[in-house]
User: Fold this.
Amino acid sequence: MEASSDLPPREAGGFAGSPRKGRPAAARRSRASVWHRVRSNRWSYVYLAPFLALVVVFTIYPLFASLGYTLYQWNGVGDPTQYVGLQNFARIVRDSIFWQAFGHTLVYTVVLVPVQLALALTLALVLNDRRLRFSTFYRAVYFIPAVTSAAIVGVVFQLMLSNFGDSFSQVLVRLHLVQHRIDWLGDPHAVLWIVIAIGIWNTLGYNLVYFLAGLQTIPAELYEAARIDGAGAAGRFRHVTVPGLREVGLIILFLAVLGSLQVFDLVQVLTGGGPYYASEVVNTYIYHQAFGAGSFGGGGGAAAQPNVGFASAASFFYGLLLLVITGLQALAWGWMGRRRTRAVG
Amino acid sequence: MIATAHRGWDQARRVRSLPRARLRRLATHAVLVVVGFLWVYPFLWALASSLKSQAGFIDEGLSIIPRELQWLNYSDAWNGASFGTYFLNTVLITAFTVVLTLLFTSMAGYALARTSFPGKRVLLAVIVVTFFLPRGYTIVPVYDVVQHLGLLNTLWSVILVQVASGMVFNTFLFMGYFTTVAKEIEEAARADGASFNQTFWYVMLPLARPMLATLGLFTFINSWNDFFTPLVFTLGQPQLRTLSVGLYAFISQTSTNWTALCAGSIISLAPIILVFVFAQRHIVDAIAGAVKG
Assistant:
């Protein structure tokens, strides 16, 4: 990043102009040289202009603007006028549906991440075998759901479950795997688990590829050496694979946790947060608050009236919660790292 | 020498345990094939169902071999359910998003990597900070901005918001890439009298072809599959819907033309699968590189 700023100062102009020398006053010279550097680098500014304009207008300004909205009761039409101070935040902290949605998001994350990562790692270990033929083909097959849009996943699963879910659940009942017929996406007790299962299937491909990449960084000699030392498959996994994957694994875990905490598309297309808020996650909750029941497919979780101020406050509040969770994660890693070094040293 | 000895030992062992190892590998293949089949079953089922008749859709259940091919479903979806319009919208949005994203981020990345202009440090600091700020629910102010720009209910709103969302990340990647290009190449171009613009367009940008391909692929997939942005900006304009939003609207309207819905899904999925099949290695390597680096 800093490589280019180590260059000798290029007052002489990146591409045009000639050095001006021999100005007597140091102050005047420095001001003039800044102006000169600006002028001689004018193309840099031109090249950066679209980037800057888009970032300022669509990223930086909205961040601050949404902070301002949090203080208003506002339905999103016209300018916000009804100032309510911190009332929106007070309402969120007391809103049981928000906390319910937060709980669902946590359950989604805490169940999906370990299961998905364990499956992805197992599959990666199998596919990493260099003597296994067609492993590129298998990798492609297991990766396909990851490049499929949430809308398609939602449509196909809804069609399959609504048409054949019933016969499938009868089979499960007959096999005594479940006691009652399952209404899949319509049953408030089952819906979150179904969404989690589909979520595991949908994004497993990314973690598979991450793990495969991580496995390829482990030198084959280490496995050889462990084998010579008499380590079995389990021992090699524990003493070579696990330590070798530690760094990549932490990144994978971090990405998976963050992605799950911000799930929106999949839930919105599968259930819209329903039935009766049973699969409402924080991001669908905020969406329903911001756009109200008027937005089609609101599902069970749509608010009657859009309330943009409240939605902004909820999202800001959730952003803070995410920061805390991320911070705790970092602390836990630090603690684990210290413990490890103590155990080793 | 030691390595050779080991290899010999390994080979000897392999020869001795050949039948068992082969059996185990066969079992591995069997499991991978069966699970893999179940894994892509929803897609196979959607493809088959998109060709079934309305009655066949119910009767044939989960079968993935339609008894008779009903190609009419595709024209139902394309014309009747407006998937032709959605397809065109999606193509336009994706094409502009990919081209503008690559153009803007490569230019910005080049300027940041190769020139030291006043204000660069401040700019880099601001970019890093925005990168780590929580991406709160900024869609409402973004909606507001779009409205003030007079772009509401146009395809441009979706394009601009998508392009903007990829700015910081892709610029970072281009900056990193251009930093690694040898300075001599640029200096040689300058010595030959090339201007700043000529150096970028004719020397540096062609050198960045692998990066352009990778980021172009990802921008394509993200843009084509994006659901949230087009959902929000086409709420009041059904004729501007993309394939994702169109599918979602179709199923929300409690339509019973399921076979056409399946045809719509296949229409949305086909381009992604085609790109994926042709660029699989490239895509997977790029994803792997992101976590390895």
